[in-house]
Amino acid sequence: MAGDLVFITGATGHVGFAVLVAALKSGYRVRASVRRQDQIENIRSHRSVEPFVANLDFVIVPDITAHGAFDGGALHDVAYIEHIASPLPKPTEDPENDIIIPAVQGTTSILNSALKVESVRRVVITSSAVAVVPDAALSYGDSKNVYTATSRVRPLPAAPWGDYSSTYRASKVLALDATDRFLAERKPHFSIVNIMPGYVVGANELVSDASSAGAGSNGVVMAVVMGQKSPHARPASVVHVHDVARIHVAALDEVSVPGSKSFLLDSGRMSFDEVIGIVTKHFPDAVKDGTLPLGGSMPAAYQRLDVTDTIETFGPFKSFEDQVTSVVGHYLTLASKASAT
Hints:
By secondary structure, the protein is an alpha/beta fold. The chain contains 11 helices and 13 strands.
């Protein structure tokens, strides 16, 4: 209920910050965990947060994989937990310690700490669409099978992990499996809801320079905009960051949203190369003067994702066109500010 205390991990990330702002706007009190002291002021002083600072406090958790990382008062008086912190796919020489362990142990760490806090009623976890689709289908597409939020990848992935994209996908599969096992074995006093988006696309409010506007999932848009031609197909599942944040917060409603279930998020069939037409339509001047060079391309690997339950529960998604204009509009705003200084 509005006014209750929500604990949010990963508040300095694209999704985490969007969820934090959405929770504050919905009337919740928020306690955000950060890794460093300097991150507190970056969040507190943000224009989207300033009107709500009276309802926001922080706790520093340097390592979410540490045993008891969220013990010792971090969850005191918390009614709801939004666990969003998890590694993004990135090149690494140590995939086990940089991606697999933080994803899995970060999840089990906060679940085990929540067991010790009677006030916790629900935990919402940012999972992923890649957690329920086999790696081969994500890489090459799958027109035969329909994947739902109750689908599970079997056998479970194991080392050697392969490239960083495969490692990231494996981390999501294993984190979801750890959550399933926690529910079955520990039978917690709280419910768990898994939110499973594809690529999360939309302006990242924490980004303040144009060169970073394409960081993370927004790269699938900005790569095409900036003329990059990808030889590899990407899973063609996208959703607006505002929808992800909206659904995370709506999932806290224990009356409207059943507990201990999962929801896939996908805004519908699209092609990454649609970016060119969308940008030409909405930003013709920036295309004409070369600010947006276009000319890029990115093959799409399609999977059949059933999001019927999600739409029935939370309402429709914003379109891919909305996602693209959000990212590119933000990029142009930042680029304009930089050129004016």
